[in-house]
């Protein structure tokens, strides 16, 4: 049997573990595009990377307490404007119609008594990571599917008829140990278990006895992995429920691999098991901001992002040989560039190459609104294949990077900046 375990309104529930006065009331977590790494004076910022086990982009968390006013409110020409979107809402808030991704200003109109808390990603990461550890100790085969979702396979370990009891114990223990409410779906097939969790929510357990009967009237939108494209195609064929999907096997098989995979998942015949966590293939950050026309300021921001990426690279002890830079402009243009650098990675080298890349692709007189930088193609450091000429300087630079990394680990990421960031 497969279990799918999903934390109920995770970020909101996580805030409740810290502040119990938030229990039982309409509340939500909101966020704004994270720009604080560019602030010239930051305090106590720590970097997080994927070692923490959750599948969200690297995030930064300021120790400084964020208030609603300070975090969400802008004053534009004397007018008070509430910015940001809802990232997670409690069930009490959902009862008023508040939904994920809704602008906070709009949500507060629907639910004026709602409390909105600025997001604390480090808390969510830590909880997610601890929960994953707990799952690994208590379920023989477990897969983390997202920051708040896990698949478990208990076949051959818990008898089928005992799975509900097992899930109930798990649910109670997670509540007790972590203060988090989870819902659990149980089924013979992995993706049906995930679907069943929706029937279990909030704070429930739902076990699918007969897959065919269960899926019969469920709308296609509810199935994980039926995106907008598939929905459109299915509606053209008057298919609106999973039961109708099941009766249209030939159609799905005409759509080749993606169609066949979907058909098997919907009918619970995919035979898919628990996935091993893949190695991370790239490390990157992107940031969105109001248009910047000043080339120097854009360059400075690229350097800051480079420092953060370099830190993660050194921490992971990989040697990326592909550097990627993309700039989106307010005018709708975007430019990008990939550089293959077959040398030993260091912050100095990375910043130098990025500076050259930026010079080459930047569009004069255009307003940059988004920067994306990543590194990929991690190679084993093989001295033979690396450019011999640069080897000595590279190893020196790498040595320096390692030392710098140790200092930053202890004192925070802002402790050492290079001249090109100033
Ligand atoms: Mg959830």
Could you give a short description of this structure?
This protein has helices spanning 10-18, 68-72, 91-94, 104-110, 121-138, 163-178, 190-200, 211-215, 228-236, 242-246, 249-254, 256-266, 295-316, 347-361, 391-411, and strands spanning 2-7, 27-31, 46-47, 60-61, 73-76, 79-82, 85-89, 115-118, 141-146, 149-153, 182-187, 205-207, 282-292, 319-329, 334-340, 368-379.
Per-chain topology:
Layout: E1 2-7, H1 10-18, E2 27-31, E3 46-47, E4 60-61, H2 68-72, E5 73-76, E6 79-82, E7 85-89, H3 91-94, H4 104-110, E8 115-118, H5 121-138, E9 141-146, E10 149-153, H6 163-178, E11 182-187, H7 190-200, E12 205-207, H8 211-215, H9 228-236, H10 242-246, H11 249-254, H12 256-266, E13 282-292, H13 295-316, E14 319-329, E15 334-340, H14 347-361, E16 368-379, H15 391-411
Parallel strand pairs: 2-8, 11-12
Antiparallel strand pairs: 1-10, 1-11, 2-7, 3-4, 5-6, 9-10, 13-16, 14-15, 14-16
Bound molecules: magnesium ion.
Tell me about this structure.
It is a single chain. The protein is α+β, with helices and mostly antiparallel strands and 422 residues long. It has three domains: 16-118, MutS, DNA mismatch repair protein, domain I, CATH 3.40.1170; 217-273, 5' to 3' exonuclease, C-terminal subdomain (DNA polymerase, domain 1), CATH 1.10.150.20; 282-421, 2-Layer Sandwich (Dna Ligase, domain 1). It has 15 helices and 16 strands. The chain has helices spanning 10-18, 68-72, 91-94, 104-110, 121-138, 163-178, 190-200, 211-215, 228-236, 242-246, 249-254, 256-266, 295-316, 347-361, 391-411; strands at residues 2-7, 27-31, 46-47, 60-61, 73-76, 79-82, 85-89, 115-118, 141-146, 149-153, 182-187, 205-207, 282-292, 319-329, 334-340, 368-379. It has a five-stranded mixed beta sheet with strand order 9-10-1-11-12. β9 and β10 form a beta hairpin. α1 packs across α5. The chain is globular. The termini are far apart. Residues 41-64 and 382-386 have low confidence and may be disordered. The chain binds magnesium ion. Magnesium ion binds at residues 6-7, 10, 148.
């Amino acid at each position: 049997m497969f279990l799918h375990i999903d934390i109920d309104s995770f970020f909101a529930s996580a805030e409740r573990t810290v502040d119990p006065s938030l229990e039982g009331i309409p509340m939500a977590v909101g966020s704004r595009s994270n720009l604080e790494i560019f602030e010239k004076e930051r305090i106590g910022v720590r970097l997080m990377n994927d070692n923490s086990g959750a599948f969200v982009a690297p995030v930064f968390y300021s120790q400084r307490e964020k208030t609603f006013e300070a975090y969400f409110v802008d004053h534009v020409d004397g007018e008070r404007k509430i910015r940001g979107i809802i990232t997670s809402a409690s069930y009490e808030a959902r009862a008023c119609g508040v939904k994920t991704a809704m602008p906070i200003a709009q949500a507060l109109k629907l639910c004026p008594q709602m409390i909105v808390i600025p997001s604390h990603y480090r808390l969510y990461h830590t909880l997610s990571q601890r929960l994953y550890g707990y799952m690994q100790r208590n379920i023989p085969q477990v897969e983390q599917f997202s920051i708040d979702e896990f698949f478990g396979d208990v076949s051959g370990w818990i008898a089928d008829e005992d799975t509900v009891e097992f899930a109930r114990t798990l649910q109670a223990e997670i509540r007790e140990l972590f203060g988090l409410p989870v819902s659990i779906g149980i089924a013979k097939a992995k993706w049906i278990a995930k679907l069943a969790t929706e029937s279990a929510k909030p704070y429930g357990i739902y076990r699918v006895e007969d897959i065919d009967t269960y899926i019969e009237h469920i709308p296609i939108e509810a199935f994980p992995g039926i995106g907008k494209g598939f929905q459109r195609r299915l509606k053209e064929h008057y298919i609106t429920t999973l039961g109708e999907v099941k009766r249209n096997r030939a159609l799905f098989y005409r759509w080749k691999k993606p169609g066949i995979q979907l058909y098997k998942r919907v009918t619970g015949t995919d035979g898919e098991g628990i996935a091993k966590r893949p190695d991370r293939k790239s490390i990157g950050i992107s940031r969105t901001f109001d248009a910047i026309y000043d080339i120097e300021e854009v360059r400075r921001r690229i350097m800051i992002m480079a420092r953060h990426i370099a830190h993660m690279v050194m921490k992971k002890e990989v040697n990326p040989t592909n550097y990627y830079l993309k700039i989106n402009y307010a005018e709708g243009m975007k430019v990008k560039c990939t550089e293959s650098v077959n040398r030993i990675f260091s912050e100095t080298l990375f910043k130098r190459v990025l500076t050259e890349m930026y010079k080459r692709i930047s569009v004069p007189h255009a307003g940059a609104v988004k920067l994306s930088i990543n590194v990929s193609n991690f190679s084993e450091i093989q001295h033979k294949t690396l450019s011999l000429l640069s080897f000595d300087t590279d190893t020196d630079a790498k040595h320096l990077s390692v030392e710098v990394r140790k200092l930053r680990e202890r004192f925070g990421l802002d402790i050492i900046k290079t001249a090109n960031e100033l």
